[in-house]
Specification:
Blueprint lengths: L3 H21 L6 E4 L18 H9 L6 E4 L23 H13 L10 H6 L24 E2 L16 H10 L3 E2 L13 H49 L3 E3 L5 E3 L9 H9 L39 E2 L4 E2 L11
Parallel strand pairs: 1-2
Antiparallel strand pairs: 3-4, 5-6, 7-8
Length: 332
């Protein structure tokens, strides 16, 4: 025996699955018929399935009437019932319902006196004005893959004198003879509501604005990185220049040793510093480099009384250190 709690759980799961299937499965055709038929010459009013406007309007009304609807024959001198407190609903008050109902009236051979104006039709929908603002209510699906002819989705306010007429409908059919399936096909003729148009425009504006801001942000970041790199290079170069060694020229000035100050002939450069310096003579002055700042000469007490040459300078590609002797006192 199944426990009560388990039983209720199974029932709950079964109900949920049934609900999901009911929403996703296409509505089943129950009893959707039309006893009215069109005379010859109106086959252009048929939908893509070959259904006459009288049968098509039955498919349009059925979803709001338990998926069962019969479109009756129109007797001479009569008109189809206007929306009222009994039959008014989203399907019956829609544009396609009015257009197809009036087309069914005319295609049976009735004269135009049996055709209602759109204002009279919409007035029967009471305060539910939203029902009269769509070619077909959203959320409703037609049975048996039925569709609505493109001309029947026209906003009735666009008809001449605000009343369905064959001339206008024929003109629309000649431009586009396709059919629309509610909830699947694109917007119908003249039925794109202002809200849909505004929504599309707003979406395009917002998308363009976001894209422009993103592009500007990327450009700003790139410019900032390039600027930082430039500043970093300048700082690194200045740091290297400040760290270059100096050469004492012996005349109260110092020369910074840089790549440009290296003489083209290193042998001559070395000989100019290794030649002996006699008493009373000044050492030769370097012809390379630029004067940076005055520096005092250095004296070496160990060289007093000696005629030996000054110590050989230690040179390399980037640094050179020179020990400059002072004037020596000769020995008697």
């Amino acid at each position: 025996m199944v426990a009560p709690s388990s039983f209720y759980m199974v029932v709950s799961v079964f109900s949920s699955v049934s609900t999901i299937l009911a929403v996703q499965v296409h509505p089943i055709k129950r009893n959707i018929v039309s006893t009215a038929t069109c005379v010859s010459g109106y086959s252009w009013m048929d939908d893509s399935q070959g259904n006459s406007p009288c049968l098509t309007v039955a498919y349009v009304e059925a979803p709001c009437f338990g998926n069962s609807y019969t479109q009756p024959i129109l007797n001479n001198g009569y008109s189809y019932t206007l929306p009222n407190s009994t039959n008014a609903n989203p399907c019956y008050c829609s544009w396609s319902s009015y257009n197809l109902m009036m087309a069914c009236t005319i295609c049976q051979g009735s004269n135009d006196s049996a055709v209602w104006g759109w204002a009279e039709w919409a007035s029967g929908c009471g305060t539910n004005t939203s029902w009269t603002e769509e070619y077909y209510p959203s959320g409703y699906v037609l049975s048996a893959n039925a569709s609505i002819p493109y001309w029947a989705t026209t906003n009735p306010t666009m008809w001449s004198s605000g009343m369905f007429n064959i001339m206008d409908a024929t003109s629309i059919y000649q431009k586009d003879n396709s059919s629309i399936t509610p909830g699947v096909s694109s917007s119908p003729s003249g039925s794109s509501s202002s809200s849909s148009s505004k929504s599309t425009n707003v979406g395009a504006i917002v998308g363009g604005t976001i894209g422009a801001l993103a592009a500007l942000s990327l450009f700003a970041v790139g410019a900032y990185l390039v600027y930082r790199r430039h500043v970093y290079k300048q700082g690194a170069y200045a740091s290297v220049i400040n760290q270059q060694p100096f050469i004492d020229r012996g005349d109260g000035a110092a020369t910074r040793m840089t790549h440009d100050s290296v003489p083209p002939d290193s042998s001559n450069f070395s000989q100019s510093f290794v030649s002996p310096v006699l008493y009373g003579q000044s050492p030769p002055t370097s012809q390379y480099g630029t004067v940076y700042s005055p520096q005092p000469q250095m004296a070496f007490s160990s060289l007093q009384g000696s005629l030996s040459p000054p110590p050989r300078p230690v040179t390399s590609l980037h640094t050179t250190h020179i020990m400059q002797p002072s004037d020596a006192i000769p020995m008697l």
